[in-house]
Amino acid sequence: MNSPIELQPDETFILNVGPQHPATHGVLRVKMEMNGEYIVNAETVIGYIHRMHEKMGEVKTYPQFLMNLSRMDYLGALGYSHGHVLLVEKASGIEVPERAEYIRAIMVELNRVSSHLFWFGAFVMDLGGFSPLMYALQDREHILDMLEGVTGSRLTYCYFRFGGVYNDVDDEFISAARRFIPRMRKSLKKYHKLVTGNIIFRKRLEGIAPLTPEMCRKYGASSAVARGSGINFDVRKNEPYSVYPEFDFDVPVFHECDSLARYNVRMEEMEQSLRIIEQGLDKLPDGPFMPEKKPKLIKPPAGDYYQAVETARGSFGIRLVSEGDKTPYRLKLRSPTYSNMHLFDEACRGMMIMDALAFMGSLDLVIPEIDR
Amino acid sequence: MSLFVGMGITFKEFFKPTVTVSYPYETLTMCDRYRGHVELIESEEGKANCVVCGLCQRACPSNCISLDGEKPEGEKKKVLTKYILDFTRCSLCGSCVESCNFNALEFSKEYNLASTRKEDFIFDLLKRLEDRNK
Amino acid sequence: MSLTLLNVIIAVVIAIGFAALNAAYLVWAERRGAARIQRRPGPNINGPWGLLQPPLDGIKLMAKQLTIPGGADKVLFIAAPVLAMFPAIMSFVTIPFSDTIVAKNMNVGILMIFAFASMGGMSLVFAGWSSRNKYAMMSSVRAVSQAVAYEIPMLITTITVVMIAGSMDLMEIVHQQSGSILHWNIFPLLGNSHNILMPMSFLIFFTCTLAETNRAPFDLGEAESELVAGFHTEYGSMGFGLFFMGEYANIVIGSCMTTILFLGGWNAPLPFLSFIPGVFWFLLKLYILIATFIWIRWTFPRTTIYGLLNLSWKILIPLSLFNLLLTAGLIKVF
Q1: Residue ranges of chain C whose CB lies within 8 Å of a chain A CB
Q2: Which residues are CB-neighbours of B77 under 8 A, at least 6 positions away?
Q3: Does residue A27 lie within any of the structural domains?
Q4: Structurally, how many domains does chain A consist of?
Q5: Are A106 and A274 in contact (CB under 8 A)?
Q6: Inter-chain contact C39–B20, Cβ cutoff 8 Å?
Q7: Contact A354, C304 (CB under 8 A)
Q8: Given an 8 Å threshold on Cβ–Cβ distance, is A166 in contact with B94?
Q9: What are the pLDDT tens digits along chain C (334 aa)?
Q10: How many CB atoms are located within 10 Å of the residue C62 CB?
Q11: Would you tell me how many other CB atoms lie within 10 Å of the CB of residue B24?
Q12: Closest chain C residue to the Cα of B17, Cα to Cα
């Protein structure tokens, strides 16, 4: 029989929160050096799901690359496709009809709501409450059914094309969306009563992992991580693109810097997305959904182009270096979760492991997006 | 106290009907635009519309399609002899359907695909067309 | 009950059989209840309403291979699940289900039940330590500190009730609550204690039962999303089955104690309803409490370990001590 391990007061042991773990959403490995229940040091190890999307960007032609973007972050797929499509249109000078712009905005906001719903369910499940997950997934089913009626897919949409969208929205979608919005508002009230007001939940999140604004700026965090610390930055307002200047919506910013602030930011974002969808449905113009004159072969002129969009996870940037050929010379995807995740290494020193995992949930990590 | 409010909500949810569909015993119908794997469309005579131009093969991002045709004597257009779709690589992007100018491809509604061998998913679409016509 | 050996053996076997059957079918009730809260059916394929699910699960668990991790302490590893299951089932021997149905009534019934309950805490240590797994060890440390911390308010509240009743005999305690609903120990207006803070005692005892049995929101020992499965990570087939059944048997024991001490045991709420036999009332109250356990588990998230320990040491113990002194004073005066 082996002799038992003697733990000296200052000695630490290494706990491997391995690639397969119920709490890390995806394949993320965290090597934690622990002293009892407190984390002394943590190191995240990524790369378990690297699929070489950027290399594929260099060998595939522009239309062939459209499907890769949905697979990067599969929960908020349409936002990423939006960025890519806007970039290539900007580079090639393709005009997009107004109806297509509005359709794109409505779809992206619906996708944002569905992504935040999934985050909400998984986050509360990490903390131990199993029922809100089921309620959130139920609401998400409504959204997925609506999107399936238009695009044909439920998770990895390949719906946006250069110049417009693949096919038009029909009246059934519009009436389903109008019915969905009040239902979702009622559900949000239910979540606030069940989860946000719950004293056990608040004690679990208040004061956990305070991230100062300086730390957020150092790592380049965006979306709820930055807005929960008081930095008022939203790509839709600061660097507007597409048809967003026409919509009237607020950007939720909370100043407490803790996990509860990040949670509140995302819940408010859901409400604001519902406002955008309402206005979009009201303002939807008639017209074509694809431009009449579309170039047969997409060959952007040589140059360096960049486009940033606000996705559910943060500010997604995509950079194209083109040499006038039919495949890009370099296509760089700036993943927001990559910047958000590295805050974990620094901020979790001195925390207990329960709080560290709650913190990881509040950062909303989707690992395939980090590894691309 | 907030705890009792939360318990009240789950109590109300206890009495609402179930939303799940017990899958093997009840099924749902797919919507019109559902993206199953592609199938060949036939003309009124029962032959495929495809003229073997090869646009779908070039548009596919994952090299799933391989097709072949021959030109019979006296005809102007080619006739399809082989159309193989490798579904293990297909990502249902729709580039092939979109790029076809001859209305030869459409999405099917097949979602019930499960098998234990990889070879079952290399579809021979021409053979499936002939099986449908029988 | 007459003292013939056969009678005693039959009574003990029936008590143990009730415990085991409850432990098995509570799993079914929990799965169906949880599923209905989440608006899905729950097990409904095996047998009508899924009633055959527990026996089939038991068969599946028995057919699995019992793995013992290399380097684990074999004796402790195998002893831990048995130690989790054994005290809970043995405590059933002395619980009175009605005026005449009790396997063996002892005049120190409460003492025996709490003695067995403390033994259950040892199984946590054995399981965590002998698994030679860091996750298991961490979670068993948490579970033991939780078990120790919550036994104290439970015992103090029990002492309050024993003071009111004047004896540790369970049947005696229930007899003193006979009459109507207002005689029960939770509503002490007509009862013996004249202490209006008794509902608070009831809540304290209820919370301690939740914590002693490692049920949500205090289930740090099994924290599924953090430490895979807590102190029973390394247990495979029947070891896991025994832990599982032991947990549910503990829940039944805790609810029985709550019913007997605070809710009047087998007494009917109104005097004219006492033509319905006492067993029915006892089981009704028991199952309402168990349904509340299940309801609470699927609503709330988990507390943190320091929140849990603070709740016990800083809030529950002072409150229960205060109630004890208040009751003692009121009994002396009135």
Answers
A1: 34, 37-40, 71, 73, 132, 134-135, 138, 142, 216-217, 219, 223-228, 298-307
A2: B51, B71
A3: no
A4: 1
A5: no
A6: yes
A7: yes
A8: yes
A9: 456 778 778 878 888 888 888 888 888 888 888 888 888 888 888 878 888 888 888 888 888 877 777 777 788 888 888 888 888 888 887 888 777 667 677 778 888 888 888 888 788 888 878 877 777 777 788 788 888 888 889 899 888 888 887 788 888 888 777 766 666 777 766 666 667 778 888 888 998 988 888 876 887 776 554 555 566 677 777 777 888 888 888 888 888 888 888 887 777 777 777 677 778 888 888 889 998 888 888 888 888 888 888 888 898 889 989 988 888 888 887 7
A10: 11
A11: 6
A12: C39
Q: Report the residue from A134, A195, A353 with minimal CB separation from C39.
A: A134
Answer whether C221's CB lies under 8 Å from C139's CB: yes
* Contact flag A166-B93 (C-beta cutoff 8 Å): no
Which chain A positions have a beta carbon within 8 Å of B35's beta carbon? 152-153
Cα–Cα distance for residue pair A174/C59, rounded to 1 Å: 52
Alpha helix ranges (H) inside chain A? 53-59, 62-72, 77-92, 98-127, 131-151, 171-191, 199-205, 213-219, 224-227, 235-238, 259-283, 336-347, 353-363, 367-371
Tokens of A14: 């290494």
Helix (H) or strand (E) holding A305: strand A303-310
Query: How long a stretch of residues is chain B?
Result: 134
The answer to whether B10 contacts C37, with C-beta atoms less than 8 Å apart, is: yes
Phi-psi sector, A177: left (phi>0), alpha (psi -120 to 50), beta: alpha
Residues 6+ apart with CB under 8 A from B22: C41, C44
What would the two tokens of residue B71 be?
């030109």
C127, C131, C132, C137 alpha-carbon torsion, rounded to 10°: -40
pTM of the model: 0.88
Give which of A31, A123, A204, A354 to mutate to test C binding, by max C Cβ within 10 Å. Answer: A354
Of C105, C99, C102, C110, nearest to C267 by C-alpha is C99
Q: How far apart are CA A59 and CA B118, in angstroms?
A: 27
Among A25, A71, A364, smallest CA distance to A222 is for A364
Pairwise CB contact (< 8 Å): B31 & A149: yes
For residue A345, tell me if it sits in a domain.
yes
Q: Which of C224, C302, C305 sits opposite A22 (nearest CB)?
A: C224
Selected residue of B2, B13, B19, B21 to mutate for chain C interface (largest C Cβ count, 10 A) = B13
CB contact under 8 A, A352 and C305: yes
Q: Which domain holds residue A214?
A: 53-371
With contacts defined as CB-CB under 8 Å, which chain C residues touch A203? 303-304, 307
A167 closest CB neighbour out of B5, B9, B33: B33
Location of structure tokens 């076809």: B100
Q: B18 vs C300: CB contact, 8 Å cut-off?
A: no
CB contact under 8 A, B94 and A158: yes
DSSP string covering A313-357: SSEEEEEEEE-SSSS-SEEEEE-HHHHHHHHHHHHTTT-BHHHHH
Q: Does residue A167 lie in a domain region? A: yes
Q: DSSP string of A24-85?
A: SSSS-EEEEEEETTEEEEEEEE--TT---HHHHHHHS-HHHHHHHHHHHSSTTHHHHHHHHH
Backbone angles phi, psi at A321, to 5 degrees: -110, 115
Do the domain assignments include residue A29? no
Token pair of A339 as six digits = 């910047």
Give every CB contact of residue B46 below 8 A, 6+ residues apart in sequence.
B133
C49 at the B interface (CB within 8 A)?
A: no
The CATH code of the domain that includes A349 is 1.10.645.10
Interface contact flag, A193 B94, Cβ < 8 Å = no
